[in-house]
Amino acid sequence: MAGRGAVERCVRPGVAICGPPGADPSADTVRRGAAEPCVRSGVGIRVPSGVAALEGDSQGGGGAESWSGLGIRFCVASCGPAGATIGLLTGLSMNGLRLAFSWLTVLPVRGPENVDRKGARRAIAVAPLVGVVLGLAAVALARLLVWAGASFAVAGLLIVGALALGTRGMHLDGLADTADGLGCYGPPERAREIMKSGGVGPFGVAALVFGVGVQAFSFAALTETGRWWGIAVAIAVGRVAVVLACRGAAAAPGAGFGALVAETQGRVLPVGWVVIAVAAAYSAVPEPWWLGPAAVVAALVVCRVVVRHCVRRFEGLNGDVLGAVVEIAVAVTAVILSLSS
């Protein structure tokens, strides 16, 4: 990173370069003064001087900082004494999408061979898109079952079963393991051992029965009332909750998947997903107008409380907790969306 009077660019080469429209990306100078959009199809926004970095990945020096996730990159560079230029560059990270689908579904998608925290961050950042795909598939299945003459209850149960098959059952496994861990009266080390044991105890069985039942009956109610898109929204919100869970919670000792994804998400992207989820829920269930947004907010608040409790109980975040978060968010969202006006 060069000094403030010379080149001012994002710390990651090729991500964004602050300068006037049409400027040569290889130029060593930056025009100061008015708002200066980033060169590569970005949007320049004037903000007060001294703005803090939007996310991590700072390389110091007080000049420019950058962050990436979902393939969206923010560049904060001091392009003048009175302000800064924020370049917002969009473009989905294909590696992140491939990794997310290979992790979170049974689809024959080959992810990157070597996965580090940077790759895991991008995969978690696009997890809601995986939820959208699963949700659309669930809606299609629901319509097909109803067309074939299946009862609404059977349709709801089959949707839950199909989702379990489509995700390798790992979220339900995480729900069961988390319930068993929380039901343990021993220290955090003992609770983590129980979660890794591979068996399912009484708390885990109860959580599975309750979770599957709540989702199945809620999906049945949404199907019966024609709120088809509520099913897709509930499934997608489960993945939005994962993005939020991977912010601000350290990994538990000995965590595998948790160590890769814990504390990888910043502030901007999770907020964006929440806004999108609220808007989608409002569109899916427009009457009463407050029901959709309330369902999303309630589900995410409940999951936040669960994550905080699990972090205290297990001394950090692990993959089982993330699986439980998915199932809890789906259940809470579906229940509220299924309420009649």
Automatic annotation (TrEMBL):
One of the Pfam families matching this protein, by short name: CobS
Its name, as the record gives it, is Adenosylcobinamide-GDP ribazoletransferase
Q: Which family does it belong to?
A: Belongs to the CobS family.
Cofactor(s) recorded in Swiss-Prot or TrEMBL:
Mg(2+)
Sorted alphabetically, the Gene Ontology BP terms of this entry are: cobalamin biosynthetic process
Q: Which residues cross the membrane?
A: 123-141, 147-165, 200-222, 228-246, 267-284, 290-307, 319-339
Catalytic activity, EC? 2.7.8.26
